[in-house]
Amino acid sequence: MSEGKGLAENPLFAFGDAVLRGCGQVMFQNNPITGLLFFVGMFVNSWQLGICALLGTIVSTAVAWMLGADKGAIRAGLFGFNGTLAGVALPFYFVFSPELLLYVVVNAAFSTVIMAALMNFLGRWGIPALTAPFVLATWTLMFCASKFGALHSGPLLAVSVPDPSALIELGNVSLTTFWHGVTKGVGEVMFQDNVLTGLIFVVAILVNSRISALFAVIGSLVGLVTALIMQSPEAPVRLGLYGYNSVLCAIALGGVFYFLNWKTFLYAVGCMIIGAIATASISAMLAPVGMPALTWPFIIVTWFFLFASRMFSRIEEVPADKGGTAEENLRLKKQAA
Q1: Per-residue pLDDT at 1 exceeds 60
Q2: pLDDT of residue 178
Q3: Which sign, positive or negative, has the C-alpha torsion 115, 116, 122, 127?
Q4: pLDDT above 90: percentage of residues in the chain
Q5: What's the pLDDT tens digit per position in 243-286?
Q6: Is 291 helix (H, G, I), strand (E, B) or coil?
Q7: How many other CB atoms sit within 10 Å of the CB of residue 301?
């Protein structure tokens, strides 16, 4: 038996590999090196966020394994990525404490249950659950904070009413707005307000797919430009808050779920634009109850685009059982031609 095969059959190694792939799958990258670099990027920005992201991924993956979920799905990290987000979101919105780690465990475990439910339900139509398990689980824990004293909300969960008069001071757009906005837009997919972390994330995606890395940057840029055209204040644009949902829209439709050509490229750009607009809409809708939009704009917009494409003969889906990286999907298309 070769050393490589022995490692692959080692349960601890296999579990670690699934955890790393789970983190990579946050941005549709089934690659352990990508996942490792994502973790590195988070620890570069904040060890608290990094610890909670790692814990969330481990717990969600372990719960799927203990409950007997499909082994192939576990190995591919499909039960891990929602746990990554479920873990990292809590210290971002709540005051970090040892007690918070218990909520990370609960949130990550719950995301696995929701993931299984949505895979079972949406799988009938061949529609992925995306990050909906993370959002639904995290909203559940966030809403309970007003009733339980163990969770101490941070300033980002404050109840507010959208004020149109605040748009009078739009701020000055500069090269820094674009540089910070695009890089942080990629980082904010995992709540990382850090230029270096955003760059690490792009490199991490590049390790697995050059096309997806390019689309991540394009998505962040499209989200930024859309917000500026709609006359958003400069500050949230510079922070990447209108880019992260568009990043996910871009990668998903930019060669992962569809065979990439000029038609699907334009279709993906449309999804990116609506993703940025939906970020503003859903954020305004949830502000009066003090809830963040999280990745719900990406989820709902991408679901609409995926369901709609069944009616468009010129948008060709990648078969769910044969999908890989954008590059692998292009090779698959050429072989079938």
Answers
A1: no
A2: 96
A3: positive
A4: 82
A5: 999 999 999 999 999 999 999 999 999 999 999 999 999 999 99
A6: coil
A7: 27
Question: pLDDT tens digits for 162-197?
Answer: 666 666 567 889 999 999 999 999 999 999 999 999
pTM of the model: 0.94
Q: How far is CA 80 from the centre of its chain?
A: 12
- Which residue has tokens 């607009």? 277
Please state, in angstroms and rounded to a whole number, the distance separating the CA atoms of residues 30 and 21.
5
Q: How far apart are CA 264 and CA 271, in angstroms?
A: 10
Going by pLDDT thresholds of 50, 70 and 90, the confidence category of residue 8 is: low
Whole-angstrom distance, CA of residue 218 vs CA of residue 68: 39
Burial class (CB in 10 A: 0-12, 13-18, 19+), 330: middle
Burial level of 108, CB count in 10 A (0-12/13-18/19+)?
Answer: buried
Q: Token digits for 199?
A: 């760059």
In angstroms, the CA 326 to CA 316 distance is 13
φ, ψ at 241 (rounded to 5°): -75, -15
Looking at domain 161-337, its CATH class is mainly alpha
Q: Which residues pair with 317 in a beta bridge?
A: 258
Q: What does each C-alpha distance from 76 to 22, 28, 82, 331 come to in angstroms? A: 7, 10, 13, 21
Structure tokens belonging to residue 147: 């009733």
Q: How many CA atoms lie within 13 A of 122 on its CB side?
A: 19
Torsion angle of the four alpha carbons 285, 288, 289, 291, in this order, in degrees rounded to the nearest 10:
60
Domain 8-158: give its CATH code: 1.10.3430.10
Bridge partners (DSSP) of residue 94 are 153
Q: Position of tokens 């007690």?
A: 99
State the span(s) of the chain assigned CATH 1.10.3430.10.
8-158, 161-337
SS (H, E, C) 286-335: HHHHCCCCCCHHHHHHHHHHHHHHHHCCCCCECCCCCCCCHHHHHHHHHH
Query: For residue 194, how many other CB atoms are within 10 A of its CB?
Result: 21
Q: How far apart are CA 287 and CA 162, in angstroms?
A: 7
Q: Which helix (H) or strand (E) holds 43?
A: helix 32-45
Report the alpha-carbon distance of residue 86 to residue 122 in Å, rounded.
Answer: 21
